[in-house]
């Protein structure tokens, strides 16, 4: 095998491994073989005593595993970790940092190549190659090791988190089983409930190792699953007769016989009888065989690994369906999943939802926005959380810090329950501000509006005392369905919302799908979805969908006259002109040909693409109002995907460049006398809301759960102060400095906010 093939095999195997020791053993074994080295070892950082510990080795004495421990900077391993770069030595024993460990049996090794394993800027460990002869590892070999480490760091971090959890779970009674996973705080609050896995994963490697008290029942479940898969295979074979050669068709029979008792089936039944659950036993056996196939020399047989894997997933699918039917949902649900989207909410009773945790996504992902609208504590981007292991366990979702805690100690849980109580008090306190006009201390009137889209958040929106709906995301009712709604169905949904808020204005934004907002029945597969077919671009390409929506919006407003229509993702004036023309056409048809008694509602555009920032005047002259979408504007200005947890730290709307763009938008809007608001998430963050006030914005639209918190701060500051702060902030060098500066300036006023920032 060449080096690239070796890399591929290592990644595949590591991804299929189910525990940290397994991952590490695969790495040392495969790397040693691929590099033709005498020794390959891996050291990982142990947080309990801040040392790098030998965790797996091929070549050194196995007894030394767990015993050799080096501090940061100590020995060659510690040096690699401290310098965060590879170290390639021909005469390692002559290096001043060389430390001699007799028990390890390494005295005879002269050459040393150590490469740090870095994940999210943290040195997780060091991968080491050693050789008896004075061999200087070639630069290509060094590059190979760097590649292995860079690619595997994520898998190691993940396995480490999983491993920590099972290790803790097996600790003796009375000992803590607590495990903490870190993600991005995405919707404030604390939620305590039982984990429910959103969609069952079909990934064999993520099936946790579990044991059963009732092997007979598990065997029965397993036999049922095999029966279904065999039937599927037979049906498939019959369906493909005539389309495939007889040799290819014969493969289906091979698969069927692989499931028999004298083959895989029997092996799994044995494992179940030894105590494993059906899913767990099946996954272990299949993964073992997949590995064997992958190691075969014959390329044809190597290819068969994916057949076995496919068969494995199919049986697993049936096994998971059976277990899905089991057991009622808990009273308090923490929804967890690999890549949660708002569609997952359709499968659970939302009123029981107390927390959401997604491994992928960030705080401006659509899922997070919906969660904030619902006021559900949420953590996104908890990349290393082992979802499958946590199913059914009690979790605390800390939407303030981004931590997710499994099986918390009694003391910690008590603290969190106390925190929940304090939050309730703050919320109740804030409720007193509901009808207080939002006026700054120097008498400046501010309008606070809500963002909505779900029926469930109407109550909260009304309770917040919002003066209007500044953004109704119409894609949300579309997402929670299984096909495009008809015009009449849409009229009913829009009418309900317009009536609920009448006479307050409701700004309904036309469909903004694409990016991370996929409709289950209209999937869009693109390389760069945020730069692709999104928002108005789809609407203009599908006038049949757009016109139906516009007609439904207009019809729903009959007699209420509180509708405003807003267009998303405008990046060209021609798009705006075309969309406005279609709206006018629909209006004429309805009023002139179909006798509806309608007023043309105010029409507006979102400013959320950098191109639009430079054409605010032209856009403002064409429409009645504009609203700044800071979520998208920030991602496009900073070139940071709002949905990617890896770059979440550099996604920040307080970046001075974003603030300068916001200032320019505001000045241009004033010059053409066009109403302006902000409806991105920035408006709902109290500190950022003050910044927006200082920039001259008067209308802010945010999720209902943020509105009173923002108001409570606005009531304490003056517009003049805000303007002075912003003048200074605009000259700072980066978002972090702006954040620090504003938090410091606002510290004396933010009595109720302290909890939020912590
Ligand atoms: C925005 O981009 O700021 C916005 C309000 O729209 P969305 O988050 O729905 O893209
Ligand atoms: Mg947007």
Looking at this protein, list some descriptive labels.
Glucose Oxidase, domain 1, eight-stranded parallel β-sheet, single chain, Beta-Lactamase, binds magnesium ion, Enzyme I, Chain A, domain 2
Can you walk me through this structure?
The chain has 758 residues and is α/β, with parallel strands linked by helices. The protein has 4 domains: 167 residues, 2-Layer Sandwich (Beta-Lactamase), CATH 3.30.450.40; 102 residues, Phosphohistidine domain (Glucose Oxidase, domain 1), CATH 3.50.30.10; 121 residues, Enzyme I, Chain A, domain 2, CATH 1.10.274; 316 residues, Alpha-Beta Barrel (TIM Barrel). Helix content is 46%, strand content 16%. It is built from 27 helices and 22 strands. The protein has an 8-stranded mixed sheet. Strands 21-20-19-18-17-16-15-22 form an 8-stranded parallel sheet. A 6-stranded antiparallel sheet has the order 3-2-1-6-5-4. It is globular, with a radius of gyration of 30 Å. The site of magnesium ion has 5 residues, from helix 21.
Task: Write a concise synopsis of the structure shown.
It is built from 27 helices and 22 strands. The protein has 758 residues and is of the alpha/beta class. Magnesium ion (MG) binds next to helix 21.
Strand content: 15-25%
- The rounded Rg comes to 30 Å
Structural class: alpha/beta
Low-confidence sequence ranges: 165-175, 752-758
Main sheet: which strands, in order across?
Answer: 7-14-13-9-10-11-12-8
CATH topology of the largest domain: TIM Barrel
Largest sheet: 8 strands, mixed
| Alpha-carbon distance between the two ends | 53 Å
Query: Helicity level, as a percent range?
Result: 40-55%
> What compounds are bound to the protein?
phosphoenolpyruvate, magnesium ion
Q: Using the 3D structure, state the CATH architecture of the largest domain.
A: Alpha-Beta Barrel
Q: Count up the domains.
A: 4
CATH class term of the largest domain: Alpha Beta
